Amino acid sequence: MQLETTRLLLRPWREDDAEELYRLACDPKVGPIAGWPVHTSAENSREIIRTVLSKPETYALVLKQTGAVVGSIGEFSSDAQFGANGEPELGYWLGSEYWGRGLICEAMQPMLAHCFEELGAERVWCSHFEGNGNSRRVQEKCGFLYHHTEHDTRWLAASGRQILHYSCLTRARFDAACMDMGKHPYKILLTGFDPFGGETTNPAFEAVKLLPETVCGARIVKKELPTVFQTAGGVLLAAIREAEPDLVICVGQAGGASGLLIERVAVNLRDARIADNAGNTPCDVPVVPGGPAAYFTGLPAKAIVSAVRAAGVPAYLSQSAGSFVCNDVFYTLMHLIETAHPSLVGGFIHVPYCFAQAAGKPAGTPGMELETIAKGLCCAVGQTLQAMAKK
Question: Does 335 participate in catalysis according to the annotation?
Answer without folding.
Answer: no
